[in-house]
Amino acid sequence: MTIHSHSIIRAAHGPFDGEVSLDYDARLLRRKRLAFDGGDFLLDLPEVTSVNDGDAFALSDGRRIAVVAAPEPVIEVRGPLPRLAWHIGNRHTPCQIMDNHLVIRQDHVLQAMLEQLGADLTLTTAPFTPEGGAYGHGRTFGHDHGPDTHSNDHGHDHHHHDHA
Questions:
Q1: Which residues of the chain have pLDDT under 70?
Q2: Is the separation of the CB atoms in 1 and 48 below 8 Å?
Q3: What is the pTM of this model?
Q4: Domains in the chain, ordered, with CATH?
């Protein structure tokens, strides 16, 4: 019988019955079969949801499986941080803000831009857990994550009616 999970426990406290290691992209989920060290289960959420390092999935058999941020290719950014953070934020790029540096996912275009701005960059592999913010759960939904929220007006512009 397939074990399901329909809910997420935010900022869960252990003990846990296993863990699922997911990178940043993989932590945006709705329906997916996930494997952990004690088996697998079918995640089936009502809507696309971003899960965070430290959350847990509640399984139909009562077990709780922790979410762990998997290491992935990132760039540690050092230098004039307020200016660099502004340029990163202006491109709606997820960014992890640390005490003395910023962390973004590896991206050749951003890397070149940051080098031009005088940043000191370190390419490494680490778990990526960017800030939450105005977009909810740290996600800036691009055109590749589910339905495009901008297409609800079916191409009609309701703001400019010419009554002349």
A1: 132-164
A2: no
A3: 0.78
A4: 4-69 (2.60.260.20), 72-127 (3.30.70.790)
